[in-house]
């Protein structure tokens, strides 16, 4: 049986607060306090994760290290050397931007993420495909959110997914700057490489020089010089009903999403079309 954390050890309590944090601001603050207490610098991206592991001797953290190390051992990452000379700027801290940042960090790159919002507020629910669930499980998603895809649940709200990915990205040495707007790209000049024009102009991210730029800001925003291709399906009508969850035993057994969508229940919609003409 695993031993309980020493209440006199502040690093254990700080790590628990970081894991349990439920807002973007709390995650960043708790992580900053944890790093300060352990005297590790997140900007030292090449050695940060190894130093964090070494100095945080806590059984709950060790379970997380095992998951990350197993994923990082994949041969494609070349032990974090595949992209160790690359500096990458990722625009947008949505699920796609954060997941991309994590992959780049595992490849050994220096990664900076810019997000214009200061909080995660999107409660839209995403259906997760089996391979997506497997990918997130392998990235220790359940260590940050114990209810992740438990039982019949195969979905998660965007905000919760962002929190999971943000925590993992920070642990891997990714710099995530919120409340920073991207205004455009600044071309290399003299000894200065590619940079981003940001707001506020005095933000440290303005001096970051990169050789890889990835836009994950969504279809509504396309940086100058980039093209977008979008596949749109037919228009559909969706009906959503929200009920108060009183967290009773009976409610816990009710699937949160019925799955009554054409891609999940084709026979139902074929019968509906033949009987009513709706399609």
What structural keywords apply?
single chain; about 280 residues; alpha/beta; FAD/NAD(P)-binding domain; about 15% strand
Question: What is the overall silhouette?
Answer: globular
Radius of gyration: 21 Å
CATH class: Alpha Beta
The helix content is 25-40%
Uncertain spans: 1-5
The major sheet is characterized as:
4 strands, parallel
| Number of domain modules | 1
The CATH architecture can be named as 3-Layer(bba) Sandwich
- The largest sheet has its strands arranged as 5-2-1-8
Q: Fill in the CATH topology.
A: FAD/NAD(P)-binding domain
Q: What structural class should be given to the helix and strand makeup?
A: alpha/beta
Describe the structure.
The termini are far apart. The chain has 279 residues and is of the alpha/beta class. The radius of gyration is 21 Å and the shape is globular. α1 (10-20) runs antiparallel to α2 (24-38) and α2 runs parallel beside α8 (158-171). The model is unreliable at 1-5 (pLDDT under 50). The longest helix has 15 residues, at 24-38. The chain is built from ten helices and eight strands. The protein has one domain (10-215): FAD/NAD(P)-binding domain (3-Layer(bba) Sandwich), CATH 3.50.50.60. Helices cover 37% and strands 13% of the residues. A four-stranded parallel beta sheet has the order 5-2-1-8, with helices on one face. A two-stranded antiparallel ribbon has the order 3-4. A two-stranded antiparallel sheet has the order 6-7.
